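Task: sequence design from structure.
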């Protein structure tokens, strides 16, 4: 499961602050990379290899954070054992770097693991000459696997993925999740084709990267609760009941922090903004809004009776929602001024949530497939939970709802389905990890048993009946119960000790 690299709290530092540029000490740009955690950067092995000759003359690798204000910089070196050069048949090309300094405040790249990746719109950021400060490619599409690598097609005319993009994260446009890393381009300049290494394949070469794989990032905006009709004089209990309802479905942040309740009736947008600011000006709430804004709730009532309802929405409500706060917006009637704009924002946020849910369901399906493959390899009778079919049905129902269903109902159903999808993904991840440990233990015991059997055979003990009586049940336990290696561990050790005694006695 993904380690905490600050992503959930990383709301500052610009867009995708994990993006880095790799340079030689002389300032020559080598390629791109991604911060995974405080002091770990992922890039291509061939990018770092380009420094090899210069390194002999005492030069070093520099890492510059291009996604942060001021572009801080530090030195780096390759982590031992985390270096896989590319092969001619489109395989490999991975390196992990250790930074000289730590950057705990910078969120890491939100890596996600998928199976066959195709037909997704992506963007990426690299450093082709002469663009030393970087360049975006915004309209690329994943065409499908080409060996281990995945083909990336850029739309022409326009910017394309080319030399200088190696090591850059390939980012899903709909969710912001990192699906892989650019490894090479197709050198024909008339064809906008390049290749990426998916996260799944990166992990096969450098298993340590699995520590930083997680679910796709959540949209930073908070829920907008639109209420139509009169609330009454007792606004506070009503607001808190609505907020609890939202959080009971999403199950994200315990507790509640009420920042402000403001009546916009007869007021200008500027006055409403001032009243909201006054309501959240305490040090505690201001801190919460900056760090865990999902714990902040604000109510703005009587919006349709304000002097400029849409200005209240755009100047006060939308900025709070964009920061992640829960905002309740109250209107008197279904035809109230400003209600259409608020509904549009609700529907847009639901659409983003559906994109994230779709990616989550793909991830659950992939976890099911690879866990079933491991179960088969181990010869286990274990049943792998199959939640993806139900989740895909629920996703389809939410998509078909469109704007026919009240957006609040869609929002709550979406939050509940997201919660269930994340729980299924985590459960499968734990199961796969447990099976992997059992498989490794089985292989260790099997190798130990066969190794000592070979020693006994070489020493002329092949016909030794006592050893044979110990060998057969050990091998049978490993063969019939491969997913329960500890059941064979004692039998294997008995055989090993007996062989040692025979050899020492000889």
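Answer:
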């Amino acid at each position: 499961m993904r380690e905490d690299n600050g992503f959930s709290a990383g709301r500052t530092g610009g867009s995708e602050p994990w993006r880095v540029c790799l340079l030689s000490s002389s300032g020559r740009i080598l390629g791109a990379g991604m911060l995974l955690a405080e002091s770990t950067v992922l890039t291509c092995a061939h990018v770092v290899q380009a420094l090899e000759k210069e390194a002999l003359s005492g030069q070093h690798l520099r890492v510059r954070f291009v996604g942060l204000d001021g572009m801080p910089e530090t030195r780096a070196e390759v982590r031992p054992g985390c270096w896989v050069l590319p092969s001619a048949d489109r395989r490999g090309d991975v390196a992990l770097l250790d930074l000289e300094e730590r950057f705990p405040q910078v969120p890491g790249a939100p890596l996600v693991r998928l199976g066959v990746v195709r037909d997704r719109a992506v963007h990426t950021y690299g450093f082709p000459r002469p663009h030393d400060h970087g360049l975006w490619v915004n309209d690329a599409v994943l065409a499908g696997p080409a060996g281990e690598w995945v083909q990336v097609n850029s739309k022409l005319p326009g910017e394309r993925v080319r030399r200088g993009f190696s090591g850059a994260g390939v980012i899903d446009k709909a969710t912001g999740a990192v699906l892989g890393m650019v490894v090479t381009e197709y050198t024909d300049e008339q064809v906008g084709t390049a290749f990426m290494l998916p996260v799944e394949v990166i992990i096969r070469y450098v298993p340590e990267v699995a520590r930083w794989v997680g679910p796709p990032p959540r949209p930073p905006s908070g829920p907008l609760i639109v209420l139509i009709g009169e609330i009454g004089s007792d606004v506070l209990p009503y607001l808190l009941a609505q907020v609890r309802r939202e959080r009971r479905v999403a199950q994200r942040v315990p507790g509640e922090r009420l920042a402000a309740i403001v009546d916009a009736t007869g007021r200008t947008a500027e006055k409403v903004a001032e009243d909201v600011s006054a309501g959240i000006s305490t040090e505690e709430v201001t801190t919460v809004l900056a760090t865990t804004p999902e714990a902040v709730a604000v109510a703005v009532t009587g919006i349709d009776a304000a002097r400029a309802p849409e200005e209240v929405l755009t100047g006060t409500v939308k900025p709070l929602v964009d920061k992640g706060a829960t905002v309740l917006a109250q209107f008197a009637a279904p035809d109230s001024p400003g209600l259409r704009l608020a509904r549009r924002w609700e529907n847009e946020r639901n659409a983003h949530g559906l994109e994230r849910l779709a990616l989550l369901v793909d991830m659950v399906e992939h976890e099911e497939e690879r866990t079933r493959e491991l179960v088969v390899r181990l010869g286990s009778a274990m049943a792998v939970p199959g939640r993806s079919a139900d989740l895909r049905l629920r996703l389809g129902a939410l998509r078909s709802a469109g704007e026919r269903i009240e957006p609040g109902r869609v929002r709550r159903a979406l939050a509940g389905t997201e919660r269930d999808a994340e729980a299924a993904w985590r459960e499968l991840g734990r199961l796969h990890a447990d099976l992997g440990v059992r498989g490794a233990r089985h292989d260790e015991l099997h190798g130990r048993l066969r190794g000592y059997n070979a020693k006994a055979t070489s020493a002329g003990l092949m016909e030794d009946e006592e050893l044979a009586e110990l060998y057969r049940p050990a091998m049978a336990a490993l063969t019939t119960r491969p997913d329960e290696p500890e059941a064979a561990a004692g039998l294997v050790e008995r055989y090993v000790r007996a062989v040692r005694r025979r050899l020492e006695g000889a």
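The longest helix spans residues 407-458.
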